[in-house]
Design goal:
By secondary structure, the chain is mostly helical. It has helices spanning about 1-5, 10-20, 25-30, 35-50, 55-70, 75-90, 105-120, 125-135, 140-145, 150-160, 170-175, 185-205, 215-230, 235-245, 250-275, 290-315, 335-340. Among the domains are: about 1-70, no CATH class; about 90-160; about 170-270, no CATH class. The relative contact order is 0.04.
């Protein structure tokens, strides 16, 4: 029994003192002194053993020790499980990164934080995991690293402001006004509407987010928005019966997928039945010419040209011909004065200067001295 008493922790030793009604100092219970509790029990054992009726007191003390030292099996297994979880559990880590483009959304980060809280991670561990998930290039990272004593509530508020997350009322209005875009497929439009619905419900669950919207009302609005926002009338008519049955999200996605596949298959078949006729140019078909006839035509044309040339060559001077008339020559006044006066200057054999017939104008003695200078014109 003594070995069992020495192995008991301080809280169980206090229970033994109280159950066995062993005299002890009140400071032992206040200060939780394990050594003081053991000393009080040893003193009690020494007194009981020395007495004649101490056997009953020893039995009572043994029962108290056994009751206190026995741990319920269920509680013991839970403690072992918790211990193993704390030993083998990995450090909390955000899957994904918080960055400017292509990063996590606010809802995704909060979901991972809530899951970590349920898994038993400490608050400081979760806060550290969120800080590590922020991209080092963002000012948010340096702000969180320099801010001491961050809590769940404070980090949620900071992330909500950073992501510029809308309130539940704004998201509800956006869901009500949603419609399929020109380049958006019916499946993409459905996923966008479902995402808006989840964001409205998520914002309604958070504290200090304004109006709390009921899940039934939000789901009914989502179905109505999807039905009225579809751009294809044929898809809307085929989905009408499914929407009236209040389907789940999974059923709605499967039903729309089947309808869209049928619609696309029918469109491909209709496109294959159409024959595309493209007219680039319309020209009249010309009959092929016989090569012999072509040569004969060319010979006839050559004969005609040769006959025309012969006729022009044989025509007398001054007659009208196809040739272009030559330009009139410039008249030159040749001859001496007498020959010119008689009108036979072209046949004159005299000196054009002095009229002598024994020399020409080049050897005329009346020329200027040394043969230099301009020749004097007729009549000068």
């Amino acid at each position: 029994m003594r070995s069992t008493i020495y192995q008991l922790p301080g809280d169980q030793l206090k229970k033994v003192l109280l159950k066995a009604k062993i005299p002890h100092d009140k400071d032992v219970l206040k200060k939780e002194l394990r050594s003081g509790a053991i000393a009080a029990i040893e003193k009690y054992l020494a007194i009981v053993i020395s007495e004649d009726d101490g056997k009953e007191a020893l039995e009572a003390l043994k029962l108290c020790v056994d009751e206190v030292s026995v741990v319920p099996e269920k509680k013991q297994s839970e403690d072992v499980t918790d211990t193993l979880r704390s030993v083998f559990r990995k450090d909390f880590k955000i899957f994904g990164s918080i960055c400017e483009k292509g990063g996590l959304t606010y809802c995704s980060v909060i979901r991972q934080i809530d899951s970590a809280v349920k898994s038993g991670h400490r608050e400081s561990e979760i806060v550290e995991g969120v800080i590590k998930a922020v991209s080092p290039s963002l000012k948010l990272r340096s702000f969180l690293e320099g801010k001491p004593d961050l809590t769940f509530l404070s980090i949620k508020r900071i992330l909500r402001a950073y992501f510029q997350e809308k309130s539940s009322t704004e998201l509800y209005t956006e869901l009500n006004q949603a419609a399929q875009q020109p380049k958006e497929s019916p499946t993409e439009f459905l996923m966008r509407v479902l995402d808006l619905k989840q964001r409205v419900l998520f914002a309604s669950e958070e504290e200090d987010t304004g109006i709390k919207y009921d899940k039934t009302i939000v789901e009914a609005l989502m179905l109505r928005t999807f039905s009225t926002g579809l751009a294809d009338e044929s898809v809307r008519q085929q989905m009408k019966s499914s929407l009236e049955k209040d389907p789940s999200d999974e059923q709605l996605i499967e039903e729309l997928n089947v309808i869209v596949c049928r619609h696309n298959e029918a469109a491909k078949k209709r496109a294959g039945m159409k024959v595309k006729v493209t007219v680039n140019e319309v020209t009249e078909a010309k009959p092929k010419e016989d090569p012999i006839q072509k040569v004969l035509k060319e010979l006839s044309s050559l004969r005609t040209e040769v006959a025309t040339l012969k006729q022009q060559m044989s025509a007398p001077p001054g007659s009208t011909s196809d040739f272009a008339p030559r330009p009139a020559r410039m008249k030159v006044n040749f001859g001496c004065r007498e020959c010119k006066a008689q009108g036979r200057g072209a046949d004159c054999n005299h000196c054009f200067r002095c009229g002598s017939n024994d020399h020409r104008i080049a050897g005329c003695p009346d020329r200027p001295e040394n043969g230099r200078g301009p020749l004097k014109r007729d009549g000068q």
